[in-house]
Amino acid sequence: MTMKEMIFSRKSCRSFTGQAVDGEMIEKILSFEPKPLYPQIKVRMDIVGREQVKCICPWTTPQVITVYSEETDGYLENIGFLFQQLDLYLQTLGLGVCWLGMGRMNPKTAEAVEEMRFVIMLAFGHPKGDPLRHDRKAFKRKRMDQIADCPDPKLEPARFAPSAVNSQPWYFVHEGDAIHVYCASKGSMLDIGIALSHLYVTYEDTFRFFRTEGIRDLNGRRYVGSVTL
Ligand SMILES: Cc1cc2nc3c(=O)[nH]c(=O)nc-3n(C[C@H](O)[C@H](O)[C@H](O)COP(=O)(O)O)c2cc1C
User: Fold this and answer.
1) What domains are there in the chain, each with its CATH number?
2) How far is the CA of 11 from the centre of ligand 1 (A)?
Protein backbone atom coordinates (compact mmCIF):
# COMPACT_ATOMS: atom_id res chain seq x y z
CA MET A 1 0.00 0.00 0.00
CA THR A 2 1.28 3.50 -0.76
CA MET A 3 1.46 6.25 1.89
CA LYS A 4 -1.40 8.00 0.10
CA GLU A 5 -3.61 4.90 0.35
CA MET A 6 -2.51 4.34 3.95
CA ILE A 7 -4.31 7.55 5.01
CA PHE A 8 -7.62 5.69 4.72
CA SER A 9 -6.46 2.45 6.40
CA ARG A 10 -4.10 3.50 9.18
CA LYS A 11 -4.90 3.46 12.85
CA SER A 12 -3.06 4.07 16.10
CA CYS A 13 -1.56 0.75 17.16
CA ARG A 14 -1.61 -0.13 20.85
CA SER A 15 -0.92 -3.85 20.71
CA PHE A 16 2.58 -5.10 19.92
CA THR A 17 4.46 -8.43 19.93
CA GLY A 18 7.30 -7.02 22.04
CA GLN A 19 9.92 -8.10 19.47
CA ALA A 20 12.46 -5.36 18.68
CA VAL A 21 12.58 -3.92 15.15
CA ASP A 22 15.81 -5.17 13.52
CA GLY A 23 18.76 -3.13 12.30
CA GLU A 24 17.86 -3.31 8.60
CA MET A 25 14.40 -1.91 9.25
CA ILE A 26 15.83 0.76 11.58
CA GLU A 27 18.19 1.83 8.75
CA LYS A 28 15.20 2.18 6.41
CA ILE A 29 13.37 4.31 8.98
CA LEU A 30 16.41 6.52 9.60
CA SER A 31 16.95 7.06 5.88
CA PHE A 32 13.34 8.12 5.24
CA GLU A 33 13.35 11.85 4.44
CA PRO A 34 9.98 13.52 5.03
CA LYS A 35 9.35 16.99 3.64
CA PRO A 36 9.32 19.78 6.24
CA LEU A 37 6.70 22.52 6.39
CA TYR A 38 9.39 24.97 7.57
CA PRO A 39 12.79 23.74 6.29
CA GLN A 40 14.71 26.31 8.37
CA ILE A 41 13.58 24.82 11.72
CA LYS A 42 16.12 22.41 13.20
CA VAL A 43 14.65 19.04 14.16
CA ARG A 44 16.21 15.96 15.70
CA MET A 45 14.89 12.43 15.77
CA ASP A 46 16.32 9.48 17.68
CA ILE A 47 15.31 5.87 18.05
CA VAL A 48 15.90 4.97 21.67
CA GLY A 49 15.31 2.05 24.01
CA ARG A 50 12.15 2.10 26.11
CA GLU A 51 14.23 2.66 29.27
CA GLN A 52 15.09 6.18 28.08
CA VAL A 53 11.46 7.33 28.24
CA LYS A 54 8.63 7.44 30.72
CA CYS A 55 5.07 6.76 29.71
CA ILE A 56 2.09 5.79 31.78
CA CYS A 57 0.40 3.66 29.16
CA PRO A 58 -0.58 0.03 29.76
CA TRP A 59 1.27 -1.19 26.64
CA THR A 60 4.81 -0.69 25.48
CA THR A 61 7.31 -1.17 22.63
CA PRO A 62 11.03 -1.98 23.00
CA GLN A 63 11.97 1.06 20.86
CA VAL A 64 10.55 4.56 20.69
CA ILE A 65 11.06 7.49 18.32
CA THR A 66 11.83 10.69 20.23
CA VAL A 67 11.51 14.10 18.61
CA TYR A 68 13.26 17.35 19.50
CA SER A 69 12.97 20.73 17.81
CA GLU A 70 14.27 24.22 17.91
CA GLU A 71 11.46 26.10 19.68
CA THR A 72 10.55 28.75 17.15
CA ASP A 73 7.52 30.05 15.28
CA GLY A 74 5.78 27.16 13.51
CA TYR A 75 7.77 24.36 15.18
CA LEU A 76 4.73 22.35 16.29
CA GLU A 77 3.06 22.37 12.86
CA ASN A 78 6.43 21.41 11.41
CA ILE A 79 6.79 18.41 13.73
CA GLY A 80 3.25 17.22 13.05
CA PHE A 81 3.84 17.59 9.30
CA LEU A 82 7.17 15.71 9.32
CA PHE A 83 6.31 12.88 11.66
CA GLN A 84 2.87 12.08 10.28
CA GLN A 85 4.68 11.32 7.02
CA LEU A 86 6.85 8.94 9.05
CA ASP A 87 3.74 7.48 10.74
CA LEU A 88 2.32 6.61 7.31
CA TYR A 89 5.67 5.30 6.07
CA LEU A 90 6.10 2.99 9.09
CA GLN A 91 2.68 1.53 8.42
CA THR A 92 3.56 0.86 4.77
CA LEU A 93 6.48 -1.19 6.17
CA GLY A 94 3.97 -3.31 8.11
CA LEU A 95 4.83 -1.78 11.48
CA GLY A 96 2.39 -0.43 14.06
CA VAL A 97 2.82 3.12 15.38
CA CYS A 98 1.19 5.46 17.88
CA TRP A 99 1.92 9.11 18.68
CA LEU A 100 2.52 9.38 22.42
CA GLY A 101 1.66 12.80 23.79
CA MET A 102 1.77 11.41 27.31
CA GLY A 103 5.38 10.25 26.96
CA ARG A 104 8.35 12.07 28.53
CA MET A 105 12.10 11.59 28.44
CA ASN A 106 13.48 9.83 31.52
CA PRO A 107 15.94 12.34 33.01
CA LYS A 108 17.87 9.52 34.70
CA THR A 109 18.65 7.63 31.48
CA ALA A 110 18.15 9.99 28.52
CA GLU A 111 21.00 11.97 27.01
CA ALA A 112 20.69 15.75 27.26
CA VAL A 113 20.02 17.48 23.94
CA GLU A 114 21.28 21.06 23.79
CA GLU A 115 19.38 24.04 22.40
CA MET A 116 16.39 21.94 21.44
CA ARG A 117 13.16 21.16 23.16
CA PHE A 118 11.76 17.66 23.54
CA VAL A 119 8.43 17.76 21.67
CA ILE A 120 6.84 14.32 21.40
CA MET A 121 7.49 10.63 20.94
CA LEU A 122 6.04 7.86 18.81
CA ALA A 123 5.91 4.23 19.89
CA PHE A 124 6.46 1.78 17.06
CA GLY A 125 7.04 -1.92 16.60
CA HIS A 126 5.70 -5.18 15.26
CA PRO A 127 1.94 -5.16 15.66
CA LYS A 128 0.04 -7.97 17.31
CA GLY A 129 -2.94 -8.76 15.06
CA ASP A 130 -4.16 -6.69 12.13
CA PRO A 131 -2.89 -3.09 12.49
CA LEU A 132 -5.09 -1.59 9.74
CA ARG A 133 -8.68 -0.52 9.15
CA HIS A 134 -10.49 -2.02 6.19
CA ASP A 135 -13.50 0.27 6.10
CA ARG A 136 -13.58 4.06 6.24
CA LYS A 137 -16.58 3.77 8.56
CA ALA A 138 -14.22 2.40 11.22
CA PHE A 139 -12.72 5.92 11.60
CA LYS A 140 -14.34 8.16 14.23
CA ARG A 141 -14.12 11.55 12.57
CA LYS A 142 -16.05 14.83 12.36
CA ARG A 143 -18.32 15.33 9.36
CA MET A 144 -17.12 17.52 6.48
CA ASP A 145 -19.57 20.28 7.47
CA GLN A 146 -17.91 20.41 10.93
CA ILE A 147 -14.43 20.99 9.53
CA ALA A 148 -14.97 23.15 6.44
CA ASP A 149 -17.06 26.08 5.24
CA CYS A 150 -18.28 24.05 2.25
CA PRO A 151 -18.12 20.40 1.21
CA ASP A 152 -14.85 19.68 -0.57
CA PRO A 153 -13.83 16.09 -1.42
CA LYS A 154 -10.21 17.30 -1.75
CA LEU A 155 -10.15 17.76 2.04
CA GLU A 156 -11.06 14.13 2.83
CA PRO A 157 -7.41 13.13 3.54
CA ALA A 158 -7.21 15.90 6.17
CA ARG A 159 -10.56 14.87 7.67
CA PHE A 160 -9.15 11.38 8.30
CA ALA A 161 -6.00 12.64 10.05
CA PRO A 162 -5.21 11.49 13.61
CA SER A 163 -5.01 14.02 16.44
CA ALA A 164 -4.37 14.10 20.19
CA VAL A 165 -7.46 12.66 21.96
CA ASN A 166 -9.07 12.68 18.52
CA SER A 167 -9.77 16.41 18.95
CA GLN A 168 -9.60 17.19 15.18
CA PRO A 169 -9.00 20.92 15.78
CA TRP A 170 -8.73 21.87 12.08
CA TYR A 171 -11.11 24.09 10.12
CA PHE A 172 -10.84 25.02 6.43
CA VAL A 173 -12.22 28.09 4.65
CA HIS A 174 -12.12 28.47 0.86
CA GLU A 175 -11.19 31.72 -0.88
CA GLY A 176 -10.59 31.44 -4.62
CA ASP A 177 -7.92 28.77 -5.18
CA ALA A 178 -6.66 29.07 -1.62
CA ILE A 179 -7.89 27.19 1.43
CA HIS A 180 -7.22 28.98 4.72
CA VAL A 181 -6.41 26.66 7.62
CA TYR A 182 -7.51 27.43 11.19
CA CYS A 183 -6.95 25.77 14.56
CA ALA A 184 -9.65 25.58 17.27
CA SER A 185 -8.84 27.80 20.27
CA LYS A 186 -7.66 24.94 22.51
CA GLY A 187 -6.31 22.80 19.68
CA SER A 188 -2.68 21.86 19.15
CA MET A 189 -0.73 23.16 16.18
CA LEU A 190 0.93 19.75 16.06
CA ASP A 191 -2.41 18.28 14.99
CA ILE A 192 -2.76 20.92 12.29
CA GLY A 193 0.63 19.88 10.91
CA ILE A 194 -0.60 16.27 10.86
CA ALA A 195 -3.71 17.19 8.83
CA LEU A 196 -1.57 19.26 6.44
CA SER A 197 0.76 16.31 5.93
CA HIS A 198 -2.16 14.18 4.72
CA LEU A 199 -2.89 16.89 2.15
CA TYR A 200 0.78 17.02 1.14
CA VAL A 201 1.05 13.22 0.77
CA THR A 202 -2.12 13.19 -1.36
CA TYR A 203 -1.34 16.20 -3.56
CA GLU A 204 2.46 15.97 -3.44
CA ASP A 205 3.05 17.63 -6.83
CA THR A 206 0.77 20.61 -6.34
CA PHE A 207 0.61 21.15 -2.53
CA ARG A 208 1.76 24.60 -1.48
CA PHE A 209 1.63 26.07 2.05
CA PHE A 210 1.97 29.78 2.75
CA ARG A 211 0.95 32.39 5.28
CA THR A 212 -1.04 35.37 4.04
CA GLU A 213 -0.72 38.67 5.88
CA GLY A 214 -3.94 40.22 7.14
CA ILE A 215 -6.04 37.08 7.52
CA ARG A 216 -7.85 37.33 10.81
CA ASP A 217 -8.71 34.61 13.30
CA LEU A 218 -12.21 33.21 12.86
CA ASN A 219 -14.63 32.95 15.80
CA GLY A 220 -11.82 32.10 18.23
CA ARG A 221 -10.01 29.85 15.76
CA ARG A 222 -6.39 30.81 15.03
CA TYR A 223 -5.29 31.31 11.43
CA VAL A 224 -2.36 28.96 10.77
CA GLY A 225 -1.71 29.37 7.05
CA SER A 226 -3.18 28.67 3.66
CA VAL A 227 -2.78 25.91 1.10
CA THR A 228 -3.35 25.38 -2.57
CA LEU A 229 -3.78 21.76 -3.62
C1 LIG B 1 -0.22 14.44 18.92
C2 LIG B 1 -0.86 13.15 19.31
C3 LIG B 1 -0.69 12.63 20.58
C4 LIG B 1 -1.26 11.41 20.93
N5 LIG B 1 -1.01 10.88 22.18
C6 LIG B 1 -1.50 9.67 22.49
C7 LIG B 1 -1.18 9.06 23.74
O8 LIG B 1 -0.45 9.64 24.56
N9 LIG B 1 -1.68 7.82 24.02
C10 LIG B 1 -2.47 7.14 23.11
O11 LIG B 1 -2.88 6.01 23.39
N12 LIG B 1 -2.80 7.71 21.91
C13 LIG B 1 -2.33 8.92 21.58
N14 LIG B 1 -2.63 9.48 20.35
C15 LIG B 1 -3.47 8.77 19.39
C16 LIG B 1 -4.86 9.40 19.26
O17 LIG B 1 -5.64 9.10 20.39
C18 LIG B 1 -5.52 8.90 17.96
O19 LIG B 1 -4.76 9.36 16.87
C20 LIG B 1 -6.94 9.38 17.78
O21 LIG B 1 -7.77 8.90 18.79
C22 LIG B 1 -7.51 8.91 16.42
O23 LIG B 1 -7.46 7.50 16.29
P24 LIG B 1 -6.62 6.80 15.13
O25 LIG B 1 -5.21 7.34 15.15
O26 LIG B 1 -6.64 5.34 15.47
O27 LIG B 1 -7.29 7.08 13.83
C28 LIG B 1 -2.07 10.71 19.99
C29 LIG B 1 -2.25 11.23 18.72
C30 LIG B 1 -1.65 12.42 18.37
C31 LIG B 1 -1.84 12.93 16.97
Assistant:
1) 3-125 (3.40.109.10), 140-228 (3.40.109.30)
2) 9
